[in-house]
Design a protein that fits this description.
Layout (H helix, E strand, L loop, with lengths): L1 E9 L10 E9 L4 E9 L2 E14 L2 E3 L18 H15 L2
Antiparallel strand pairs: 1-4, 2-3, 3-4, 4-5
Length: about 100
């Protein structure tokens, strides 16, 4: 996706030249944006959690996240995760203070 904003929580540094496993989960999506969680693990421990919000494009046309996934969910979750609400509020406050 073309990202719009990111929220990153570092837990511990990964040693140089170590392998990092990244697991990406689609948390929520609407008509305009998709919200993804990326968990980064090093040596079996969480190194960072990154939330990214972005839109998917094919050329210049915006497309739905379901078209980009290997195993798309049957439907959008019925309730928006709390982290998405908090993130949207923090993003709005940050944008207002630029």
């Amino acid at each position: 996706p073309l990202t719009h904003s990111e929220l990153i929580h570092y837990r511990r540094a990964a040693p140089l030249f170590s392998r990092v496993k990244v697991t990406t989960t689609l948390l929520w999506w609407d008509d305009k944006m998709a919200y993804l969680e990326h968990r980064m693990e090093c040596q079996g421990r969480i190194s960072a959690i990154v939330y990214s919000r972005g839109a998917f494009f094919a050329g210049r046309q915006r497309i739905s996240p379901e078209r980009c996934l290997v195993k798309p969910p049957a439907a959008r979750p019925s309730a928006k995760p709390a982290v998405v609400d908090v993130w949207e509020q923090a993003d709005a406050l940050f944008a207002a203070n630029l």
